[in-house]
């Protein structure tokens, strides 16, 4: 049965009623006409949803040698025995269960004393938990490079954004990310071709929702981004890249209201969704325009920045607003009510905001081990620079970080849909896979329970994507996209780091092999 309200919420209905001819119809004739129009809309919406699902979650392919060498458990009939099931719905864990995988699907969740299918490969996983594969909603395939960065924080122009097509997808998969949205592309053809090779079984990696190139206005920050010339250009860019195969879009900091409105309308006409990292446009303005999602929690809203001018970014990029709009304030309540009323999701990206050393951990050794030496050195320079900032400045940054956490919690309490992703850019402390896990840990630090945080990082993303019938939670019939971790992250969220197996489409990958294959490569390629 089709959920009509859900279809409207998903923005798959893109027809304007004013485009329909007006008929002088009454009685049964009018009812038949309305029924026919409604049926056509339903069929069109359902077809678009099916097309998106087929593109993001294609049938599993036979693995080639470059992917197969990372497999620990080949596809087949597999029994994950004596495992704790954390199903991603915020329900209490199921203890000492056996999860059966067959044909790339979850076939059953049964008592560990129940008979096993004949010929099943049995993994005895006492002391382990199984979770849904993470659905990363701000998971770039690039890195930020600052040429000749100095200890003073200066670097030579231009700022570069090198593609990480080799290392990023291996790290995401190793960290338990089985589906991701790239949330902005600087090499869209690379991303699309990478997706195709993963889908064909030639390379290891997650399922990809490839976001198009940034829809950015006039600026001089990123030399690799096209600068829109107006609404017509925004529409052309959306149409072109949708035809090339991208499945989502993202507005960026200097896009104007008219350009964003044109992009939103065009994206929705194609049955797709659009998010944005805003600055020139405020959150309230974007919500009124019909945006689907907003990135970076509440950290980049510029609504209350001093001197904010229409369609212009502010020097502080939202720092003043997040400091003023404290959780529980009237400004926060009003904005959150507006976002919830317009069904606007918020993507939490706490790891990229965790940059000021005020009590925040330094780069863990496991992250440093995969980073290129140049990238690790740049991180050390930036962290030292931040640590040397005046104490009141560091305290203000930390207070804003805590307030951003509280606003995300308030948004969820009001009925908002919170998504999760790390944004592997910033000061170099955010690394694919590892930082997806860190995002969930930080959600717990923000005040969510471990089970709530796991749901935000799994089922919420799948629901936003319209893929929750396939992924995002653990239930019979769903895709066998799973993470097996040692320990119990429902009690100790840090156990989410102890990944022993990552199953994608019923095939179990070895995270240690994936990580070893990119030692000291992240930041290079």
Describe the structure in your own words:
With 525 residues, this protein is an alpha/beta fold. The protein has two domains: 53 residues; 332 residues, Metal-dependent hydrolases (TIM Barrel). The chain contains 18 helices and 17 strands. The strands form four sheets. Strands 1, 2, 3, 4, 5, 6, 15, 16 and 17 form a nine-stranded mixed β-sheet that branches. It has a three-stranded parallel β-sheet with strand order 7-8-9. The longest helix is centred in the N-terminal third of the chain and has 30 residues. The chain is globular and about 70 Å long. The two termini are 46 Å apart.
Which short descriptors sum up this protein?
alpha/beta, TIM Barrel, 2 domains, nine-stranded mixed β-sheet, three-stranded parallel β-sheet, 17 strands, disordered N terminus
């Amino acid at each position: 049965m089709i959920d009509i309200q859900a279809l409207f919420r998903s923005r798959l209905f893109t027809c304007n009623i004013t485009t329909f001819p007006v008929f002088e119809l009454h009685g049964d004739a009018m009812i038949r006409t309305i029924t026919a129009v409604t049926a056509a809309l339903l069929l069109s919406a359902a077809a678009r949803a099916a097309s998106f699902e087929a593109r993001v979650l294609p049938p599993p392919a036979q693995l080639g040698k470059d992917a197969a060498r990372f497999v620990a458990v080949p596809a087949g009939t597999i029994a994950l025995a004596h495992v704790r099931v954390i199903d991603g719905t915020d329900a209490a864990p199921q203890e000492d269960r056996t999860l059966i995988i067959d044909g790339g699907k979850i076939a059953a969740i049964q008592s560990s004393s129940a008979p096993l299918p004949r010929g099943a490969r049995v993994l005895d996983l006492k002391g382990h938990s199984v979770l849904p594969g993470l659905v990363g909603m701000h998971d770039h395939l690039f890195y930020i490079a600052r040429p000749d960065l100095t200890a003073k924080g200066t670097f030579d122009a231009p700022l570069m954004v090198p593609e990480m097509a080799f290392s990023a997808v291996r790290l995401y998969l190793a960290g338990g990310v089985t589906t991701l949205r790239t949330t902005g592309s600087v090499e869209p053809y690379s991303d699309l071709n990478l997706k195709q090779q993963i889908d064909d079984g030639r390379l290891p990696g997650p399922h990809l929702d490839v976001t198009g190139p940034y829809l950015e206005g006039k600026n001089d920050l990123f030399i690799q981004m096209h600068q829109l010339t107006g609404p017509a250009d925004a529409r052309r860019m959306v149409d072109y890249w949708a035809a090339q195969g991208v499945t989502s879009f993202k507005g960026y900091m200097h896009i104007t209201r008219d350009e964003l409105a044109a992009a939103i309308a065009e994206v929705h006409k194609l049955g797709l969704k659009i998010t944005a990292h805003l600055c020139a446009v405020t959150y309230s303005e974007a919500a009124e325009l019909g945006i689907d999602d907003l990135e970076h929690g509440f950290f980049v809203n510029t609504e209350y920045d001093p001197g904010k001018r229409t369609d212009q970014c502010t020097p502080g990029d939202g720092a003043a607003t997040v400091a003023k709009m404290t959780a529980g304030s009237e400004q926060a309540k009003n904005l959150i009510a507006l976002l919830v009323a317009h069904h606007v999701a918020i993507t939490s990206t706490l790891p990229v905001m965790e940059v000021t050393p005020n009590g925040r951990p330094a780069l863990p050794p496991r992250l440093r081990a995969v980073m290129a030496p140049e990238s690790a050195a740049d991180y050390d320079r930036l962290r030292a620079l931040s640590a040397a900032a005046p104490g009141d400045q560091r305290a203000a940054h930390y207070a804003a970080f805590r307030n951003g956490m509280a606003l995300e919690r308030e948004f969820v309490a009001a009925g908002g849909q919170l998504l999760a992703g790390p944004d592997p850019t910033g000061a170099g402390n955010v690394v694919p896979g590892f930082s997806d896990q860190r995002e969930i840990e930080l959600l717990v630090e923000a005040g969510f329970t471990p089970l709530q945080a796991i749901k935000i990082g799994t089922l919420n993303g799948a629901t936003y994507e319209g893929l929750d019938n396939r992924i995002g939670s653990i239930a019979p019939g769903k895709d066998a996209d799973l993470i097996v971790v040692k320990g119990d992250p429902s009690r100790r969220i840090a156990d989410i780091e102890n990944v022993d197996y990552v199953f994608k489409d019923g095939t179990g990958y070895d995270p240690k092999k994936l990580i070893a294959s990119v030692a000291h490569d992240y930041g290079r390629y």
